[in-house]
Amino acid sequence: MSTIPSRSLATALFVPEEGDYYQCRICFLRRKQANGTGYTNLVEHLVCYHASTGDDFSRNVYHWLDWIVMENRVLSMCEKIKTRKYTHLKPLSVNTLKNNMFELETVMQASIKTQLERKKMGFAVDAWKKDGTHFVAIIAITSTDKFLLCFSTLPDESDMSADATIDLFDYVLDTYGIDAATQLCFYVCDHASVNVAIARKTSVPMIGCSLAMQALMSDYTDLLEKVHRLMSKLNTIKTRHRLREADALMPTFGNAT
Description:
The protein is α/β, with parallel strands linked by helices.
């Protein structure tokens, strides 16, 4: 257990209660831990009573998840012949991996919901396209922490309107028990027309990334124009071919939003 941060152990294995008390999710005993004093009492309880908790199967699933998720591997990696040949981990099917990922998602959502309870926050929102698929990410920003609440596609990818994104916001608010009227204070996003419409329809102030960046870079306007002209000259078929031969980076233009 020493390799896992005390805060992570306390968040995952204890349920906060009134009066600085926490209930163990494993044995349901209550331990007192005053706010601002760390997690010594809670971790001591785990070491004394649950040091051997967690069977071999659970540890095996965790190791597969840690490997595949943290290194952004394909889920089918756990069934590949070469992977199983060169790893000491026990075999695991893709279906078992997926089922445990869904269960872990539920646990993490409950943990984040507890940490966001009654806290003021903003949403950092970003949308982009990769290989023809549109993705949306929503990150909750509090005064002390950041939480990735959603990394998803829209139900109807042909509809990228403000209303479709607002529906996704509603899902996130319901999932994490966030009261938009009292907790959601602002959005941070690109200064695109759809984001402006979202802010207007939901009556939540928007901090446009582009406007803030324009103010920050206002003293470098001439230099940025020179860079833009250079990128335009480099953006030809022959020049890009020579850049590839030299193993150099390709020309990139500034984003309008």
